[in-house]
Amino acid sequence: MDEKPLHYPLTKRLFDILVSLLAFAILSPILLIIIAILLILQGPPILFYQDRPGLGGRIFKLCKFRSMQPSPGNENQPDRDAERITPLGKFLRRTSLDELPELFNVLKGEMSIVGPRPLLVQYLKRYSAEQMRRHEMPPGITGWAQVNGRNAISWEERFQMDVWYVDHWSLRLDIRIILMTFWKVLSGEGISQPGRTTMDEFMGSNFEDK
Questions:
Q1: So what's the pLDDT on residue 210?
Q2: Neighbours of 3 (CB within 10 A)
Q3: For the CA atoms of 159, 175, 181, 144, what is the dihedral angle to 10 degrees?
Q4: pTM of the entire structure?
């Protein structure tokens, strides 16, 4: 990845800053209410930080509202999520309100409003060369895969959509995805795989083919 020029257009960065500042101005009352409810019902910490790969695979700290009970061990255990997620956390995830603190990541230049979702660090060594291309653009709060199935589609389909977005990016496409995201959030479509709290762990394309 580092050997290839990283494509992060200045117009996209300016768009990200403008939308983030506008979102903070509009959503600040909601953010304060969520913080107050989290403190009352779950207690501190109210934020959850986790290493995620960003542009070019570089690692950054993703910031979200905490939706699970703290884990005494390894937190990268998707199969244990159903046991750790809180009732309030389920609501925050269903409405995608847990994602709002990622606006800070956007302002810091670590993320974009629209782009491939930042996944777990351990997935980096499991991607094919084509799948790794999803890191040629900064990760996003929402993305093309999120408005076309989100967690209800397979990993292969998701990565194909991520690479398609990298190849077809435009401000017009970003605006379209943002508008589609509002509908997806309201309808609650594709938040998780059927019968699962979150999506199954990605073990690699070769593994999935077996």
A1: 37
A2: 4
A3: -10
A4: 0.84
